[in-house]
Amino acid sequence: MQEHISNSRIAKLINVFAEAKRSMTSKELAAYMGVSSHTIRNDMKEVEALLRRHGAAIEGKPRVGYALQILNEAAWHKFYQQLMLEQKNSLHEPCGKIVPTGRKDRIDYIISNLLALALRKEQLSQWDLADKLYISLSTLKSYWKDIQQVLSSIGITLIADRGNKIRLEGNENQIRRCIAEKFFSQDNLLDLSNSNFYQEVFSQEEIQRVKDIVLKAILSHDIVLSDMAFRGIVLHILIVLKRFGNAATIEYSAEELKFLRTTESYGVVREIVEEIHKEMSFNIEAEEYYLTEHFLSSQRFLRDEKLSDRDESANELVWYILGEIKSEYHIDLSHDRELIAGLQIHLNAAIHRLRFNIGIRNDILQVIKKSFPLAFELAVLAARIIETQENLKTNENEIGFLAMHFGVALDRKAHKKKNCILVCGAGAATAMLMKEILLRRFGGYLDIVRICPLYELRQTDLDDVDLIFSTVMITSFQSKKIVYVSPVLTEDEITRLEGRIVCNKLKADVEAYQDFFHENLFFKEITLDTKEEILCFLSEQMLAQGYIDERTQASIFAREKMASTEIGGLIAMPHAIENTSSVPAVAVAILQKSIRWAYENVQLVFMISIPQNKCKLWEDIFKRIYQYLVRDRGIHELIAKQDYHILLARLFHVNIERESHRME
Fold it and tell me: Which CATH code, of 1.10.1790.10, 3.40.50.20, 1.10.3720.10, 3.40.50.2000, is assigned to 309-414?
């Protein structure tokens, strides 16, 4: 690609068209981008000119909108792949080619540059920084107040000297932490040298020597770290080496020092520090405790050996968490040994991270929220227990990693094979044929524990199995577990059986889901300006109409503090941690204009109230909303039309006229 896109809004618009695969009006685009329709129309001229040079075009039609046309597939694919790569690099590198245009993005960009300077122990003039952003010095200075506010909240100060040079000063631990979080994502940690930014700061020789020293130390102690943990340790050593010579060091309390000295990690770190002194001529002995806390907090692979005595507190915490999940969500995970062992290992490291305020980056947090919504709620509950029991403050990144453990466990639980009995009135050959057909089609879902004639079947057998397939009528007792089939299963029967065998959760009637939505809880053209105002408005409406109680209302606000409920695509889905109401209900608010939620803009809010004992319904409701509004980009249709019946029709694939009649 011969040219680079310097305007981040133009790059984002191209992404929207590439993913939408349909026409979009300037009003829809303006709502999504958070700018005016006039700005969108001006931007479209630049987008059109750019795409024409790279195998594509934008077709605009009155009252229909804009749509992407691919004129040259190869040229477009090459251009778009390069654009995606540059956008990814710009997220983590101050040298990224896409220069931000929005206020928040510019503030992030400026802070990234300041942290890069801090890592190199350099300063930059305000004029040079303004030039990098293509803005005036006065515009740059208008951001100082917001930047100071962000930095001061983490113990860092922005300093401008008489020569207009700018730099960061303050808490050394926070400066290092911010550097690590800002520039080192999970992807680029896999290869520290595969980046222009890292190549500018670290030499290939430095990276390799530190890697070799760390690898030698952990192998000698038979410690197995994950790839991410290994490269994280290497990263923090490199940061220490680059910041070497700073007067500031990390200070610890006497109690913390005593604890760190008693850990196995301290001995490993001492060996690493000695080798660095010997091989690289850097004496970083003063950083032993800093590196020990990071080593102690690293993610390790699960080993076969038993947990040590020091891990017993994590063991007790895991069982407490599983007990609360069973009590509040009616989900029993206490027999999942893999989950229990994984949580014990994870919590050991996580509690150390939280205790020493060590950040951990979670680049797939939004993916986890969207892919494992129920698991994320279990993780929020677990995080609340950790905060209470350990007197620590958790964060969204840690909650996301916990959710991964629960997501896999729920998937294992959902795919647990169903035990079944075959009752066959014909001979053994027919019974074996029936067994083979069932196992060939549903072997991953069924365990056939017994084949018997009708006279051997007892009602007590119902307690031991999930299903009974019978070719003959059973008159001695009745049960929903009994499924009648032909001696030789037909394709129609097999299709019918899929609903009973493959279904991994309680089959929910579409009508029942529709009953969660109420037209008196559908609010259009709402003119509120903050997340808090919207939460108050919707929860008060639900409270006044008897859909939730005050305890559930308070829990909605508590849940939002634990982790933001926005899911991207202009949508937020607030809900309670503890839901003490008895009736499922969903309130919907369409805002007149989008507002900043926590990280992104939001214009459509679903406040979801599902009683704790019906928590399994949460996942299906979430996925229906996400499928229509985000994947199918129905958000633009709903914002434009603001029609309650259209929402239900799209969510549940029913005819609009039939739904309107039902609601009359």
Answer: 1.10.1790.10
User: Which ranges in the chain are annotated with CATH 3.40.930.10?
Assistant: 510-663
The DSSP secondary structure of 531-583, one letter per residue, reads: HHHHHHHHHHHHHHTTSS-HHHHHHHHHHHHHS--EEETEEE--B-SS---SS
- Placement of tokens 């019906």 in the chain: 614
Q: What is the pLDDT of residue 588?
A: 96
User: 347 by DSSP, 3-state: which?
Assistant: helix
Most confident of 82-86, 415-419, 472-476, 522-526: 522-526
Q: How many C-beta atoms surround the C-beta of residue 525 within 10 A?
A: 10
3-state helix, strand, coil in the chain (%, to 5): 60, 15, 30
Contacts of 174 (CB under 8 A, 6+ apart): 154, 155, 156
Q: How far is CA 541 from the centre of its chain?
A: 29
Report d(CA 568, CA 630) in Å as an integer.
8
- CATH superfamily of the 418-501 domain: Response regulator (3.40.50.2300)
Residue with tokens 């409270």: 543
Structure-block tokens of residue 457: 């079947």
For the stretch 46-65, pLDDT in tens is: 888 889 999 999 988 887 88
Which DSSP state fits 464?
Answer: T
- What is the gyration radius of the CA atoms in the chain, in angstroms? 29
Pick the CATH number of 8-92 from 1.10.150.170, 1.10.10.10, 3.50.50.60, 3.10.20.580: 1.10.10.10
What b/e string do you get for 338-376 counting C-beta neighbours within 10 Å, with b at 16 or more? ebbbbbbbbbbbbbbbbbbebebbbeebbebbbebbbbb
**CB neighbour list of residue 508: distance below 8 Å, 6 or more residues apart:** 617, 620
Q: Where in the chain is the domain with CATH 3.40.50.2300?
A: 418-501
pLDDT tens digits, 137-159: 888 888 888 888 888 877 888 88
Contact status, residue 25 vs residue 641, Cβ threshold 8 Å: no
How far, CA to CA in Å, does 152 sit from each of 92, 169, 174?
Answer: 22, 10, 11
Per residue in 615-663, pLDDT (tens digit) is 777 777 887 888 788 777 788 889 988 999 888 888 876 433 333 333 3
Q: Where in the chain is the domain with CATH 1.10.1790.10?
A: 309-414
Q: Which fold does the domain 510-663 belong to in CATH?
A: Mannitol-specific EII; Chain A (3.40.930)
